[in-house]
């Protein structure tokens, strides 16, 4: 089956005063198949959220190509974009700013239906009630206002709103990061249930590796505007190849004292460089514990080296060796 | 999907909806004596302005047999140099103040809000142009600008309303724009864009309702400013013309007889002070109550 | 190694800090919020105690009661003893003397905790000058030492920089340097790494570890992240609805969680996902919500959400009792250790 979404060489630069440029996204390529969950992982400043915004055309890509469901949407006009918006929706991180405080929950969930002329009046109310129940809320909840709901309930409303048009793709931008652990668990279970039942594809953007390990089919790891490695979930976790992926995996503490204290951790030196002046060559070379001279000058390309579905952008990964990071 | 869990609602909000929200707001308002005082003063002012002229007789009826009369049973607040009843004139003056305050603020809002919305929403060049113009106007003190405008237009209540309204536009533009800038950064606006909503939908369904609180509070600042403005213009002879009573006109008259009939100056002055105080207290109270940050 | 050291420290003698039956409440317009409802705990010299729990559990309020960094509406009762002195009884000026010298705090937001208008060096030396009465030159030398201690490269150069020139991780290190400038005996760290990226977090946690090892500072770490707890804590107190529901040595707690809430939290972590009967990966959920903080019925506060709740759980409230013969494993549960897995799956 052809991919639902393909992003090729996406670049997004923002002007940033005094003639400087923020290189938020610099040549990202990724694809999502029908019904697939792609986890886009990265730390702050990696550009992961910007990729999501470009796909939704909430911001104008500088260059590259975004093809959604067979249509090139890279520079489509707002009018041209409108019919496609029925098929792609977004769930935000902040359950407080993502719902219009002036609307009742019912209005909030019905808004996409109204916008796309899918249903109105009674039919819309019915659909809204059905959707609210699907996300684990009572239908009566539609008469309430966002400020009366807890963070977890709001996030469910956000999901209901994103899914009410039965989209083909959902972009979820850190949807559980603001929630407490126990609430996060129920929202994650809900999301996986809905994803399997409704069959939508999902771009799940997060900084939390354990979350993508739980629900992603494939994972792409971003660092400073570029994808450094991508592949099936198990491969990323069992056979990480890029030094950054390894460092990221080793830095996330596991909730098991014996295991956590016995681990060999890679502590990266220094800070993430500014996206105003990204390093030359491999963007990770300034912090990479195994960088060689070539890393500072030659940009590594994201190519499959050891497995066809597991491309990595590192000069040191070869067919028969992967760099090992010593403490 | 038979096993969906139904999250129980917390008891505190289970009862309900909108009325609960209003009750909470009222309780928060009611608890502050200052806000309540403001509300009472404003209500009294409105009653006086709306019912007063009917209750207290003709403010222009001249009685030469009783000029500059001290307060008495027949004329509770005394009479002026033409023997006109001061109470009737205060009441009619309240009506004039109300008209000037409300109409000029309405004018400022009707013109200022759309400009602010558009400037804040589209930013870019339009925003720069509008905001520079606003800065230029705001660099004049509000009253100086209004006085200049009124002097050009000539004295009449309609021109006073126009002059005051136009002078208030920049402040309204600036506040609207500020609200738009903050509201448009909220995720729910991005969500609406992702739905394919057009600009009009976003502006009027999402941005404007969320900017409304700040604008309501601003109205409680603009109205008393306009009341003072009207009194000032009328005092200077640029506003309402005699014999129509206005607190400003009354003060002009009182000024000439300050030694013979000091009570003439007291009541218009007190009314102006108390009315503006009332609006300002009310505004402060409203600001506390409907601030979206505390409404969570 | 650190493990042994702290365990030895604790057995060796009297606790550095002891909190006894602490209650904290706040008057709000919706009524009296009881944030902390009778918390008792101790902290040994050089120990790292993690207070963990979800938002609203009272973990921050408990810890901030020590230097009494609480809103003015807070009402505090109970005792907080440091060297036999009851901190609850201190007046404002005594508290000021206490803060920074005996007890220091590191907050979550490194951006807003530093004053943007002054250099890093000025902000560190100011503290040294105020509390330690050091000369300008001595304070500067000490500031360089402190920045070195918290792992900031080129410390002398950094002294001249302003907070906005530093990254989040570096700012948090500066905050820690300021907090430990006067060698406090207790450092309270409120979600110190929550705003940081994981690759930065690891380094900051190392800083805490080395502070404890080199200066013997006791640390109260407030966190919701059980991974961080597993990494650094010696002992853990799990809080729920204003009370400690379970407390144990860190390895003991993770190996044998006894309270159903602790078990629920551990099971809810994405890394604990298991396959269910339909071969789907599922997380264990904790149904329901935290009780409203306005009332305090005489029952186990977790009973309404507890998979193993029985009649006795709603008849009275379990106290935090010693469980088994373990080294100080406490749990407030009538049925500690009863397997919740079967109960949930049933």
What is the secondary structure topology, with strand pairs?
The complex is a heterotrimer of chains A (327), B (296) and C (346).
Chain A: E1 5-15, E2 21-32, E3 37-41, H1 48-55, E4 63-68, E5 71-72, H2 78-81, E6 88-91, H3 105-115, H4 121-134, H5 151-163, E7 169-173, H6 181-198, E8 201-206, H7 209-215, E9 218-223, E10 226-232, H8 233-238, H9 243-251, H10 257-262, E11 303-304, E12 311-312
Parallel strand pairs in A: 3-8, 3-9, 6-7, 7-8
Antiparallel strand pairs in A: 1-2, 1-4, 4-5, 9-10, 11-12
Helix pairs in contact in A: 3-4, 3-5, 4-5, 5-6
Chain B: H1 11-14, H2 17-30, H3 33-55, H4 86-122, H5 124-138, H6 142-153, H7 157-183, H8 187-194, H9 199-235, H10 247-256, H11 263-290, H12 292-295
Helix pairs in contact in B: 2-11, 3-4, 3-11, 4-5, 4-7, 4-9, 5-7, 6-7, 7-9, 9-10, 9-11, 10-11
Chain C: H1 2-12, E1 17-28, E2 31-43, E3 48-52, H2 59-64, E4 74-82, E5 85-86, H3 92-98, E6 103-106, H4 110-113, H5 120-132, H6 136-149, H7 155-158, H8 168-179, E7 186-190, H9 198-215, E8 218-223, H10 226-232, E9 235-240, E10 243-249, H11 250-255, H12 260-268, E11 274-275, E12 281-282, H13 311-315, E13 321-322, E14 330-331, H14 340-345
Parallel strand pairs in C: 3-8, 3-9, 6-7, 7-8
Antiparallel strand pairs in C: 1-2, 1-4, 4-5, 9-10, 10-14, 11-12, 13-14
Helix pairs in contact in C: 5-6, 6-8, 8-9
């Amino acid at each position: 089956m052809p991919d639902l979404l393909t992003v090729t060489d996406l670049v997004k630069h923002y002007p940033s005063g005094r003639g400087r440029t923020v290189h938020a996204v610099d040549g990202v390529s990724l694809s999502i198949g029908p019904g697939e969950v792609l986890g886009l992982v990265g730390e702050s400043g990696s550009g992961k959220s910007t990729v999501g915004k470009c796909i939704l055309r909430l911001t104008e890509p500088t260059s590259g190509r975004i093809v959604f469901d067979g249509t090139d949407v890279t520079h489509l006009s707002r009018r041209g974009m409108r019919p496609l918006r029925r098929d792609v929706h977004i769930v935000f991180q902040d359950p407080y700013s993502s719902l219009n405080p002036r609307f009742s929950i019912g209005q909030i969930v019905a808004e996409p239906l109204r916008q796309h002329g899918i249903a109105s009046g009674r039919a819309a109310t019915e659909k809204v009630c059905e959707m609210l129940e699907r996300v684990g809320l009572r239908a009566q909840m539609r008469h309430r206002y966002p400020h009366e709901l807890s963070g977890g309930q709001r996030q469910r409303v956000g999901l209901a709103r994103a899914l009410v048009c039965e989209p083909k793709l959902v972009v979820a931008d850190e949807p559980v990061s603001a929630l407490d652990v126990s609430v996060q668990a129920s929202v994650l279970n809900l999301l996986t249930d809905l994803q399997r039942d409704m069959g939508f594809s999902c771009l799940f953007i997060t900084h939390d590796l354990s979350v993508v390990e739980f629900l992603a089919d494939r994972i792409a790891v971003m660092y400073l505007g570029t994808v450094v490695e991508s592949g099936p979930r198990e491969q990323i976790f069992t056979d990480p190849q890029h030094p950054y992926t390894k460092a990221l995996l080793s830095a996330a503490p596991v909730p098991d004292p014996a295991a956590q204290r016995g681990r060999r951790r890679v502590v990266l030196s220094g800070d993430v460089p500014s996206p105003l002046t990204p390093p030359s060559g491999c963007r990770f070379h300034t912090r990479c514990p195994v960088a060689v001279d070539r890393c500072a000058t030659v940009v590594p390309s994201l190519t499959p080296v050891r497995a066809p579905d597991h491309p990595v952008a590192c000069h040191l990964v070869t067919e028969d060796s992967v760099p090992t990071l010593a403490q | 999907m038979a096993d969906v869990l139904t999250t129980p609602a917390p008891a505190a909000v289970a009862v309900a909806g909108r009325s609960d929200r209003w009750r909470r707001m009222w309780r928060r308002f009611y608890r502050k004596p200052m806000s309540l005082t403001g509300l009472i003063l404003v209500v009294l002012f409105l009653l006086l302005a709306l019912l007063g002229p009917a209750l207290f007789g003709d403010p222009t009826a001249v009685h030469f047999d009783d000029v500059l009369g001290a307060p008495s049973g027949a004329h509770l607040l005394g009479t002026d140099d033409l023997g006109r009843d001061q109470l009737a004139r205060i009441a009619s003056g309240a009506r004039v103040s109300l008209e000037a305050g409300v109409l000029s603020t309405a004018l400022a809002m009707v013109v200022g809000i759309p400009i602010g919305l558009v400037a804040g929403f589209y930013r870019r060049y339009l925003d720069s142009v509008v905001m520079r113009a606003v800065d230029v106007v705001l660099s004049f003190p509000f009253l100086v600008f209004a006085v200049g405008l009124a002097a050009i237009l000539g004295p009449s209540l309609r021109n006073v309303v126009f002059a005051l309204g136009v002078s208030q536009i920049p402040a309204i533009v600036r506040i609207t724009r500020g609200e738009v800038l903050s509201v448009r950064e909220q995720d729910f606006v991005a969500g609406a864009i992702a739905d394919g909503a057009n600009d009009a939908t976003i502006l009027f369904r999402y941005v404007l309702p969320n900017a409304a609180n700040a604008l309501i509070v601003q109205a409680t600042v603009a109205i008393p400013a306009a009341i003072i403005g009207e009194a000032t213009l009328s005092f200077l002879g640029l506003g309402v013309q005699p014999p129509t009573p206005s607190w400003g006109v009354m003060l002009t008259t009182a000024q000439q007889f300050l030694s013979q009939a000091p009570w003439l100056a007291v009541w218009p002055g007190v009314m102006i002070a108390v009315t503006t105080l009332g609006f300002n207290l009310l505004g402060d109270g409203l600001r506390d109550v409907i601030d979206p940050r505390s409404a969570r | 190694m650190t493990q042994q050291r702290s365990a030895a420290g604790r057995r060796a003698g009297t606790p550095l800090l002891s909190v006894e039956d602490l209650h904290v409440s706040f008057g709000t317009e919706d009524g009296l919020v009881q944030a902390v409802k009778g918390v008792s705990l101790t902290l040994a010299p050089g120990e790292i105690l993690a207070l963990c729990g979800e938002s609203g559990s009272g973990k921050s309020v408990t810890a901030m009661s020590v230097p009494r960094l609480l809103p003015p509406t807070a009402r505090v009762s109970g005792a907080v003893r440091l060297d036999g002195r009851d901190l609850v009884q201190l007046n404002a000026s005594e508290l000021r003397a206490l803060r920074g010298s005996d007890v220091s705090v590191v907050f979550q937001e490194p951006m807003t905790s530093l004053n943007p208008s002054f250099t890093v060096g000025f902000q560190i030396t100011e503290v040294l000058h105020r509390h330690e009465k050091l000369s300008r030159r001595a304070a500067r030398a000490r500031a360089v030492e402190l920045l070195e201690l918290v792992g900031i490269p080129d410390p002398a150069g950094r002294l001249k920089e302003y907070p906005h020139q530093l990254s989040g991780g570096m700012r948090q290190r500066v905050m820690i340097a300021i907090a430990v400038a006067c060698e406090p005996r207790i450092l309270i760290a409120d979600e110190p790494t929550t705003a940081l990226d994981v690759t930065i977090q690891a380094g900051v946690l190392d800083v805490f570890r080395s502070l404890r090892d080199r200066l013997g500072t006791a640390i109260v770490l407030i966190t919701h992240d059980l991974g961080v707890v597993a990494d650094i804590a010696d002992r853990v107190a799990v809080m729920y609805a204003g009370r400690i529901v379970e407390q144990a040595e860190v390895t003991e707690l993770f190996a044998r969680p006894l309270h159903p809430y602790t078990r629920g939290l551990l099971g809810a972590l994405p890394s604990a996902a298991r396959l269910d009967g339909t071969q789907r990966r599922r997380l264990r959920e904790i149904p329901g919500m935290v009780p409203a903080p306005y009332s305090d019925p005489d029952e186990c506060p977790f009973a309404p959400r507890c998979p193993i709740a029985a009649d006795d759980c709603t008849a009275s409230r379990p106290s935090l009792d010693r469980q088994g013969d373990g080294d100080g494993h406490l749990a407030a549960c009538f049925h500690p250790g009863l397997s919740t897995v079967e109960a949930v799956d049933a």
